[in-house]
């Protein structure tokens, strides 16, 4: 299969407000978002859609579509992220969550893990009163208070280290983050960027951060049931899943798992209302395996050890995929659901 992808950085540089721009040429913002994150493969996109995007970016189709470049995945050891929406090195990831769903805990955990891999972590402190952001400070190497200060620090740091950079959506809406990324690219500095939304408004937008390589959609139901990290494995996605970036086994397991979880969620609604006795006999195994997979995708974090009393766990991707396969194939059918909650590998 030819390795092709949408040139998301180009769209970020060229189109300041992609939501409005997409609508102006008759494109659905959700379609554009799905193309950017790889949820809709480029090979399945309509020609008119690609032509419209190229027109908006004032570029050729050859510039809009990148061929042959291999995207590099950063393995985080967080099961849900690595299996369903991998982090792209040098890409931009948007966290979409309302208050209380744990997005800042996930950010702090990622910073903790990336520091172990040699990254320098940098936070652009948002303006205004946001006491909750202090939860991340312990994992931040460098705090900056303005985009200009960020540029000056990142130019120096980026010549020596890999950079993990985080900012709030307010800096995206002003266009500052895209301009910062563009300026840094011209001096050869590449960032892996994390965008959060402290106001919780991103959930109501199709393209809350503009073009992204990765989208992590947090789930209110998972958070309410304390299934952390509450990242939705069905709706979170990454452009690295498209084309030939990952091994075929990863794609097969991911797709099988998503299919099971979709059906499990449908069945769970029935069970919640009517009880297990109303569940068709043919669907019992599907329901139970969905329960087990959902439990397995919970995980203890290093940054939460002081609060949970449980040691943090990291799981290699190959172990995560093998464990998911075991659940899908029924090899864990005799395991109690409770035994899979907040563990590392099986």
UniProtKB/TrEMBL annotation:
Location of this chain's protein in the cell: Membrane
Keyword terms of this UniProt record: ATP synthesis, ATP-binding, CF(1), Ion transport, Membrane, Nucleotide-binding, Transport
UniProt cross-references to Pfam families, sorted A to Z: ATP-synt_VA_C
Signal sequence residues: none
Domain ATP synthase A/B type C-terminal: 245-325
Principal location: membrane
Keyword RNA-binding: no
InterPro entries: ATP-synt_VA_C (IPR055190), ATPase_a/bsu_AS (IPR020003), ATPase_alpha/beta_chains (IPR050053)
Mitochondrion found in the keyword field: no
Protein family according to the UniProt entry: Belongs to the ATPase alpha/beta chains family.
Record-linked PANTHER family: ATP SYNTHASE, ATP SYNTHASE SUBUNIT BETA, MITOCHONDRIAL
Protein name listed in UniProt: ATP synthase A/B type C-terminal domain-containing protein
């Amino acid at each position: 299969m030819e390795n092709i992808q949408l040139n998301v950085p180009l769209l970020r540089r060229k189109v300041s407000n992609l939501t409005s721009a997409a609508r102006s040429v008759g494109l659905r913002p959700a379609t554009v978002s799905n193309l950017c994150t790889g949820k809709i493969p480029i090979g399945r996109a309509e020609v008119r859609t690609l032509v419209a995007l190229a027109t908006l970016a004032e570029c050729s189709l050859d510039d809009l579509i990148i061929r042959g470049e291999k995207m590099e995945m950063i393995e985080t050891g967080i099961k849900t992220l690595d299996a369903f929406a991998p982090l792209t090195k040098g890409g931009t990831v948007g966290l979409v969550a309302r208050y209380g769903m744990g997005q800042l805990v996930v950010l702090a955990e990622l910073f903790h893990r990336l520091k172990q891999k040699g990254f320098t972590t940098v936070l652009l402190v948002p303006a205004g009163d946001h006491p909750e952001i202090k939860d991340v400070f312990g994992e931040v190497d460098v705090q900056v208070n303005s985009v200009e200060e960020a540029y000056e620090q990142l130019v120096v740091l980026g010549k020596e280290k890999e950079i993990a950079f985080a900012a709030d959506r307010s800096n995206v809406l002003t266009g500052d983050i895209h301009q910062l990324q563009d300026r840094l690219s011209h001096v050869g500095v590449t960032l892996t960027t994390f965008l959060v939304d402290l106001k919780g408004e991103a959930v109501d937008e199709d393209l809350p951060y503009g073009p992204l390589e990765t989208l992590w959609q947090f789930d209110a139901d998972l958070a309410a049931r304390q299934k952390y990290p509450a990242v939705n494995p069905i709706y979170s996605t990454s452009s690295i899943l498209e084309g030939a970036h990952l091994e075929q086994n990863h794609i097969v397991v991911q797709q099988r798992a998503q299919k099971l979880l979709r059906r499990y969620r449908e069945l769970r609604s029935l069970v919640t209302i009517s009880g297990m006795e109303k569940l068709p006999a043919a669907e019992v195994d599907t329901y139970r395996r969905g329960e087990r997979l959902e439990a397995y995708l919970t995980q203890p974090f290093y940054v939460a050890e002081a609060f949970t009393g449980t040691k943090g766990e990291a799981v290699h991707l190959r172990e995560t995929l093998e464990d998911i396969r075991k659940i899908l194939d029924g090899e864990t059918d005799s395991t109690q659901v409770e035994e899979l909650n907040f563990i590392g590998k099986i």
